[in-house]
Specification:
- Helices cover 45% and strands 10% of the residues.
- The protein has 26 helices and 14 strands.
- The radius of gyration is 28 Å and the shape is globular.
């Protein structure tokens, strides 16, 4: 499977628009189309859904063949794709002028990426070992490779499909760079190789079905994820042979952390085959033997950090009470737990640092500004590992802390500044292991954001609340089976009425009894069901491969509760109105504090200056009403007028964000609705807009917190919409009870 580099302007536009609408990884990423988007542009969503019913998760290959969006319909030879193509053509035609202005800025990145790929991926270097690992035949088939500057994430890669066959791949060269780009391309080539249609003897899919048979959902899911991991490991191994410093995508992009147990099994055997120590058949046999020891559910379900917390706090309690067995288990588990937590948080800190690509750094020290700029060159998780290695852990974590606490505050950095500060103290040996673990769970309790990237945090807050309240019964229900057994044994051995010595000193290493389990089964990557630190509260026999009662159940989806950092202070109102005094006349607004209390209070605070805000022009704390002297910078007749940005560009804010308050029964079916603009989910700031017509395509995306009160005010809004120049908003008057 070889590739040839191709380029398509229409594909660039389509992927950029898909990213703008549904594929930006967060409100922190730059956007090029003003939000909210027009109804014509939003038709792209419906077009994609129509295509997906025919081509699945890929995109039709003719998307890359058309020279202009208007030419797309001429390439359709399947009537099932025609309705979706018509919708996409309308959307792309509407969005193309704006996106076409943005794309040239990434031309140098694309040229550099093309050169890097040619240096890394000569066919003679990767083709034979890739095909051998996957059990596919070397063919003369060549795929088109499109290095695109903007693609929806995750995963920022994808396939082009023609008549059910993969004919091309695309990779976001803005996000993936250098060896990481080569890794991503090889991963996609590996998947295309497996999807090529021909299934020779020894094909990876066939081998996994033969060794891990079964058609139940968890069995199928196990094979799919294992295939993904093996393909990613193979790609990373081939790139690392060329660049020893390369950190494989399977690590930095999440597979290693999301499927810790399954990844660790593959990691014990597959790299040995890739290094030539054992043959492929032996590696697959060893992997299958380990996976067959437990139900597939054990390897597919997410880790439960509430179980880790319950194990840690109960073992600490038992240790303080003088239980020598618990003390032994805690001391032997602790280094593994620290390594897992530190590695997890280090990876997530790198991820969170990518949130500040929009940050205005000109008001901060040069060292910090350069750090934020550099960390966002490509995927921040990859760049973070390199910068930490080059600058040293202490300096890198200090800069990360300052980034979170400074320009990052606008995008939720206040939750991560203490995490980076804690990590810095830990790597500089200022925090003992037990204090570090306790701090991790304390910060999870306070911030609610440490573990939700890769673990199931559904019940974590319950357990941490129980720890704070010394609710031992709740801790026990979430602890691993072994810790529950240790607890019961301690209670049986203790003499009734004997005091619990909570101040007992830990034993010295010489006093810790030898544990027959040694260093095995002590961490997530080597644990077995029911043992200390396994990350699950089920009984030991729950994952028996023959009798697992949930083995044939639907796969359980990881739950990620959204952290909604509303202000702790809130002024409530029985009634609320506002008057926007503009150079075209007054606009009287009726607000809805009952449905959107935080949004209404935020608007009032900005309008009156009673809420602290930052001036995006100077970086200093603002004085007076935020909206005084701003303009309606966006005016789209028949759609919206938009204001609330002191920059006057649509890219400014008041220096912070608040979550959405979207009322399920409130929509944009009627015109003249007042709503807060945003950059994506839970990123409301200072900008607001007023609709001029029905706009149901906006439903569920923006907080509607009021409406225009009377006809004269509506006439003023309509007049602003057709103004050829920006209209000034002099001040805002609040009428509140």
């Amino acid at each position: 499977m070889k590739f040839r580099q191709k380029r398509s302007t229409t594909l660039d536009l389509a992927l950029a628009l898909q990213r703008e609408l549904i594929g930006r990884t967060g409100s922190w990423e730059p956007n090029f189309l003003p939000r909210p988007v027009t109804p014509q542009t939003d038709l792209f969503r419906d077009g994609l859904r129509s295509w997906a019913r025919v081509v699945g998760s890929g995109l039709p290959a003719f998307l890359a063949a058309a020279r202009r969006p208007e030419d797309l319909i001429a390439f359709v030879d399947d009537d099932r794709l025609r309705p979706g193509t018509e919708l996409l053509t309308t959307a792309l035609t509407a969005a193309a002028p704006t996106l076409a202005e943005a794309l040239p800025a990434f031309e140098e990145i694309r040229k550099q990426a093309a050169a890097e790929i040619n240096d890394f991926l000569a066919p003679e270097r990767y083709l034979a070992p890739l095909c051998a690992a996957l059990g596919t035949a070397e063919t003369e088939r060549t795929l088109d490779l499109h290095l695109v500057p903007l693609a929806p994430a995750p995963p920022a890669t994808g396939f082009l499909i023609d008549a059910g066959k993969v004919t091309g791949i695309y990779v976001d060269c803005r996000r993936f760079r250098g060896s990481t780009l080569a890794d991503a391309v090889l991963t996609m080539l590996g998947w295309a190789q497996l999807k090529s249609g021909a299934i020779p003897e020894g094909h990876l899919s066939t081998e996994l079905v033969r060794r891990l048979p079964g058609s139940a959902p968890y069995q199928r899911r196990l094979r799919v994820i294992l295939t993904k991991i093996l393909v990613e490991m193979t790609a990373g191994h081939l790139v690392r042979a060329l660049d020893p410093a390369h950190r494989p995508c399977a690590d930095v992009l999440g597979a290693k952390w999301r499927y810790a147990r399954l990844y660790s099994v593959a990691e014990r055997h597959w790299p040995r085959h890739l290094d030539g120590d054992i043959d492929r058949d032996e590696a697959l046999t060893l992997i299958a033997a380990e996976l067959s020891a437990h139900s597939p559910r054990w390897f597919v379900d997410s880790v439960d950090p509430s179980s880790l917390a319950a194990d840690f706090y109960l073992l600490e309690w038992l240790t303080a009470a003088g239980d020598r067995t618990a003390r032994s288990r805690l001391f032997r588990w602790l280094p593994h737990l620290c390594a897992e937590l530190a590695g997890h948080l280090d990876n997530v800190i790198g991820n969170e640092l990518g949130h500040y690509e929009r940050a205005r750094t000109q008001h901060y020290p040069r060292e910090l500004a350069d750090f934020i700029t550099e960390i966002n060159q490509g995927d921040s998780r990859v760049t973070w590992q390199r910068l930490r290695r080059e600058r040293g852990h202490g300096l890198a974590l200090r800069l990360a802390t300052e980034a979170f606490a400074g320009p990052g505050v606008e995008f939720g950095g206040e939750a991560w500044a203490p995490v980076a500060a804690m990590m810095r103290r830990y790597v500089q040996h200022e925090l003992p292991d037990r204090v570090f673990v306790d701090q991790c769970f304390t910060l999870e309790h306070n911030n609610g954001s440490l573990f939700d990237k890769y673990h199931d945090t559904t019940t974590t807050r319950v357990v941490l609340d129980a720890q704070a309240a010394t609710d031992l019964d709740t801790l026990l229900t979430h602890a691993s089976a072994e810790v529950r057994e240790l607890w019961q044994a301690h209670r049986l051995d203790s003499v009734e009425g004997h005091p619990v010595w909570l101040g007992a000193h830990p034993a010295s290493p010489a006093e810790i009894p030898v544990d027959s389990s040694g260093w095995n089964a002590m961490g997530l990557h080597t644990s077995t069901p029911g043992t200390v630190g396994c990350g699950d509260r089920s009984d030991r026999n729950a994952f028996d491969p023959l009798s697992d009662p949930l083995r044939d159940s639907p796969v359980r989806v990881r739950q990620t509760p959204a952290r909604r950092p509303f202000s702790s202070s809130l002024r409530t109102y029985r009634s609320l109105a506002a008057v926007l005094h503009t150079e075209r006349g007054d606009i009287h607004l009726t607000l809805r504090p009952d449905e959107t209390p935080y949004t209404a209070d935020n608007f009032v605070g900005l309008a009156t200056g009673s809420r602290t805000w930052s001036d995006p022009l100077t970086g200093a704390t603002g004085e007076g009403g935020f909206y005084d002297g701003t303009v309606f910078h966006r005016r789209v007749p028949g759609f919206v007028v938009q204001g609330g940005d002191r920059l006057g560009t649509g890219h400014g804010s008041a220096g912070y964000r608040i979550p959405d308050e979207i009322h399920p029964d409130r929509g944009f079916e009627r015109p003249f609705q007042l709503a807060m603009a945003n950059l994506g989910r839970d990123s409301t700031g200072s900008q607001f807009f007023i609709t001029l017509a029905s706009a149901p395509h906006l439903n569920g995306q923006y907080t509607i917190f009021g409406e225009v009160a009377d006809d004269p005010s509506k006439d003023v809004v309509s007049g602003i919409a057709v103004s050829p120049t920006a209209v000034r908003l002099d001040r805002v008057t609040i009428l509140a009870t």
